[in-house]
Amino acid sequence: MKNRKKKVGKIFLRVFLKSCVCIGLFCLVCGISYKVTMFYYENVAEVEGNPNLYGLLEKIEADGKAETISKNLILVTGEDDEQIKNILIEIFNNTTGNLDYITVPKNLEFTMSYELYKKLATVNGDIPQIIRMGKIHKYFQGEGMYQCAQILLEDLLDISFSYYTVIPIDVYKEMFVKEKESGIQIWKDSYKKQMLQLTTKEKYEEFFKKYCDKVKSNLSYEKKCNYISGYLAGGPKQVVFYKVSGENVGNVFSIAVEETNSLIHQVLSNAAYTEGQKVKHNKKSKVSSVGLSVEILNSTKVNGLASAFQNKLAEQGMNVIRIGNYTGNTLEKTKIIVKEEGYGEDLLAYFKDAEIEVGTLSKDVEIRIILGNRDGEEM
After folding, report:
1. First-to-last CA distance in the chain?
2. CA gap 174, 187 in Å, rounded
3. Which helix (H) or strand (E) element contains residue 63?
4. pLDDT digit string (tens) for 179-197?
5. Residue 136 CA from chain centroid, whole number
């Protein structure tokens, strides 16, 4: 009898323990499932359901604002994709009629603030804190990319955009052309002529309607028409073009934030421009030779001259990819041949009366230095 009770007790205990284990596992699975589900709805479902950078950033309003002084971020995109090809800041003062454009190089690269980085990384963990404007399409697409571009520039500069406008590259080419020397984006002559012919409210309404049909913007056609009075007062007759301050370091544009903010503040506070005023360009940005591929050739009879300058420039961080002898005539002055206007200006400090010219170079060379007799005198 006692043995039977012991067996029954053991069976009961075994079944009870198994039940506890099963209940515990069940609760654990339910808990994990709940956490996973909540994580999904908070970080995935919300991402898919909210166009304003997926609900994690509330900085951008769904509709743009028609302010007295409008700050319009213009993004130019490619034909087959949404990669950013060009960037412009358009500032229009509806009171004075001043219309200003500031070119922002697409190869602009900078470190975003840690606070913004944390927010964007929540949406896409692959985004780097050091970001290049022309590559944000890798991390955000569609409206999210436009909003991301706006937020990034607002994080970098002292500006709060009223709205953004996305222009396809084919429409952009009808309106703008890029100056070769400065890189500043200006109106094409044909487009300026077209704008100057808009002399009535009705003509502007028709123009804005066609314009809005060709581009994407978070400013409505009705709000765009609020600027007609200012355009009639000045607009095309009072247009000025600039470029943000900074310099190219290799393939990257490094912006001078304080100088650019100063330019923006100046534009925002300018009195009405004189009608017929010439277009003003800011001074051409210096291009650093650090990071560019440099070739040094010796045209003199001084042995080891190219090697000496290779070492000298390498100490300053220059990328001298090769040295050799020049097969042409001996030069009196050193000649610096550059692939693009603006290159090599900072190299003049290392040579005596050197001359710079733009010329055709091999694919792997961006600057060619041909050493002359004057730089071989001390060797």
Report:
1. 115
2. 9
3. none
4. 877 889 999 999 999 999 9
5. 8
